[in-house]
Amino acid sequence: MKHKYMFVRVHYDKRVASLEPLGLEYLLACVKAEDHEGMIHDESIESPFGRFRRLLKKIDRNGITLVGFSIMSNTAWYVLELIHKLRKARPDVKIMVGGPEVIVNFKDFMIDDIDYISYDNGLESFRAAIKGEFEEKVLHDCSGFAFRDKGEWKANDKGGPISDYGILPDRSFFYDNLSKFRVLAKGRFSVLKTAFSCPQNCKFCVSRQFNSCTYAERAVDDVMNEILTLDNDKIFIIDDDFLVNRDRVIEICNRLLESGCKKTFMIFARADSIVRCRDIMPLIYKAGFRDMLVGLEAVEDTTLEKYNKNSSVELNKQAVPILREHKMVCVGLFVINYDFTHKDFMKINDFIRREKLIWVLFSILIPFKGTPVYEENKDRLYRYEYKRTGGTSVLMRPSNMSMLLFKLEFHFLYYVNYPRIYWAGLTGAFNRKYKNQ
Ligand code: B12
Ligand code: SF4
Q1: For the whole prediction, is pTM greater than 0.85?
Q2: Ligand 2, from 203, 207, 272, 273: best to mutate by most atoms within 8 Å of Cβ?
Q3: Which of 44, 63, 113, 274 is most buried, by the most CB atoms less than 10 A from its CB?
Q4: Domain at 4-155, CATH from 3.40.50.300, 3.30.540.10, 3.40.190.10, 3.40.50.280
Q5: At a CB cut-off of 8 Å and minimum separation 6, what does 344 contact?
Q6: Pocket test for ligand 1, best of 28, 65, 74 (most atoms within 8 A of CB)
């Protein structure tokens, strides 16, 4: 049977960013490359009313026979409910799941309501499944894939790490819905991936576990080709640390300058990588990089050591002024640890003020299932539920203050720091000061 595919991203909190569904665009590209039909359904850009009815309507109207859901930890509860309703309403439609939470904990999804689970590193086995019309004999050879073999779940081993998907994402969904995507105060960014996983080993991190914990880079030629053909002047490179490989960064910057590219880039960068790239910051700026999201995590070395962050507060202190000197935005990403005292919360605020950070993001430490932090703190976990893994819930008992006070201190950080960001948005500061003109 030739399936018709629909890939679903469920709704999420878009106050900070509403971004292109890059993962689903890769899946759609695979479907089209195998000469099948497919579509993307993104709840996050549609009305919050009548979501389930709309999903069924789209399935029926487009003759969809296989629906694939992308699952993140904090949306898993909602997706599982949705899948259950869908199974009852349309028992003939096949249901598949994939995405970050599935990659790390695929066994949790071997349930009756689901037919296929995809957790491979690349997209080859997904393409093979499409090509083979999801027939059982084909699925036996699909790496990183689980399915029911005569009623019993069978889970194939993952394939090896990859350094390229071997296909470009189908961005038509993004282009058709441009006005619905934006980053708070910064505008509309396309999303681009140039590398897989991360060479570091932080204990709380999920994304390093992708690609079988193996850091790998796409070829510069391919990256350049994608950047230059992308029809948008702002690009968010979502690699975990774009500055890992200094020589590659220099090459990409030089190539961008040679091509006359005038795009503005936002990246994730580690503080130690920024310090290591200090001397090439003028080049990085010239090439259009204006915005770096830096995991500052904490303002105490003991906390960084506990996370196995392999960095230091001193490096954080050096990195922020380097970005300021080179007229780049530093978005400070802070993780609130359960050992925090009132003083620690204040230290974060002092740090933000002293370093004149405008953009900041705070997350209460999420001991994600599948990470060492989860294993080490299993007996300390407090109401660990999918629903509560969005970074704003207390998932372990704080050791130095009451739960209520801890939450108040956390919210206080947002109340104090967010008006500044909204103000920057209202006054158009990003485009005025930071856009690559
Ligand atoms: C961009 C991004 C966002 C964006 C967009 C989120 C979105 N819903 O699309 C924004 C900024 C809004 C965001 C917010 C949050 N994010 Co976020 N985000 C990312 C980031 C940096 C890149 C994602 C991406 O585009 N990857 C590239 C594409 C190609 O990969 P992909 O989407 O995973 O898809 C691939 C596979 O997973 C698979 N796949 C995906 N879906 C499906 C479905 C099927 C059927 C199949 C077959 C395959 C499949 O195929 C794709 C190609 O291989 C990742 C980090 C990372 N390195 O991935 C974190 C990450 C996904 N985010 C994470 C988290 C925790 C959050 C937040 C809770 C914030 C927070 N406090 O940390 C919120 C929650 C929002 C939400 N529920 O959606 C975690 C998820 C951990 C987990 N266990 O689920 C990650 C991994 C970062 C981390 N902390 O380690 N995020
Ligand atoms: S540096 Fe960032 S992406 Fe890399 S392991 Fe640490 S938290 Fe994860």
Answers
A1: yes
A2: 207
A3: 274
A4: 3.40.50.280
A5: 298, 299, 300, 337
A6: 74
Percentage with pLDDT > 90 across the chain: 86
| Helix H or strand E encompassing 104 | helix 100-104
- The residue type of 146 is A
| 297, 303 contact by CB (below 8 A) | yes
E-assigned strands of 51-138? Answer: 66-70, 94-98, 116-118
Residue closest to 234 by CA, chosen among 320, 295, 275, 174: 174
Return the percentage of the chain with pLDDT > 70, whole number.
Answer: 99
**Residue 435: pLDDT band by 50, 70, 90 thresholds?**
confident
pLDDT score recorded for residue 216: 98
Q: What is the pLDDT of residues 100-115, one digit of tens each?
A: 999 999 999 999 999 9
8 A C-beta contact, residue 77 and residue 385: yes
CA-closest residue to ligand 2 atom 6? 202
As a whole number of angstroms, the distance between CA 105 and CA 351 comes to 36
What is 181-434's CATH topology? TIM Barrel (3.20.20)
Q: Where are the domains of the chain?
A: 4-155, 181-434
For the chain, the helix, strand and coil percentages under 3-state DSSP, each to the nearest 5: 45, 20, 40
Alpha-carbon distance of 128 to 124, in angstroms, equals 6
pLDDT digits (tens, 9 = 90+) for 322-370: 999 999 999 999 999 999 999 999 999 999 999 889 889 999 999 999 9
